[in-house]
Amino acid sequence: MTPAVRPAARPVAPVPGRVRTTAPAAAAPEARTVAPSPFDPGAAHDPHPVHRVLRERFPLTYDPLLRAWVLSRYADVATALTDARFTHGHRPGDPPCARAHVDVDVGELRSVAERTAHVLARRLADHAQADLVADFCHWLPAGTVAAAVGIPYRDMMRLVRGRAAGTLAGECGGQIAVREKALASFLGNVLADPEQAAALRDAPAGLVARAWNESLRRDPPVQIAVRRTRAEVPVSGGVLPAGASVALLIGSAGRDPERFRAPDRFDPLRDDADQLTYGKGFCPAVLLAGFEAEYALRALFTAMPRLRLADGFRPTPAGLITRAPRSLIVRPRG
Length: 334
Prior knowledge:
globular, four-stranded mixed sheet
């Protein structure tokens, strides 16, 4: 039985052929709505048309495929990630991280990220062509953790996703795969625009950090997060019932035109920047992700000053729950 929800004041007419959401039995017949699903065919290739329709016409809808109510607007998703009326999953940078991590040597984290990035970049410098996802992004987050806890390079991938990651970052250790995807999207966004790449080639750390946060906003590695309500919560389009499962479309929230100007554009200099992948508090996983992004750029451009995307190649993100380019084919020697 579909959970009850208080309907929006101005219901939207059904759209044939889409997932059907039924309003409470006591509601008027015209309160019934039909909405697209984030799992619709083609959404893994391009979810943004679905997100747009959800934000504009169905800001609150029940999706039987997800078995959850769906929130797609920035204001609602940001609230659900931080408000005490929702249960909270583990998001690196949220308050529990600050209480869990003590005696973290930030300087050492920065140092191992820098060393690992330069080692990996130098290995690609003589190649005529390389795939940065397979040959760089897949190794940098794991290699940084391995170096931080003293695991030999040859044992890195065997151990780092278990004991080593937990030693460094506790619950955040599972974020290694997320950091891989975030890094792939970041490098794809930078390299897709030669002028942007040139501007960031020797940029100060502050500008690189802004570009990193902008990539997390535009192309978050985690597209959907799930929470549960502890009480009734008013949101755009109605009121969520207590005890409801709620799917938060982080990828949609990051491109909400009510929050961001020209939201589809990658713009490190925007003055309305924000991202929902990470919380604002202290967390080694969040620090490492930022360090890896900064030193990835510095190491790649130091080892390969003429680095560019291969002729005719454009980064193509894919995925429903997590999302990133599956390959980044580049010409290290220009």
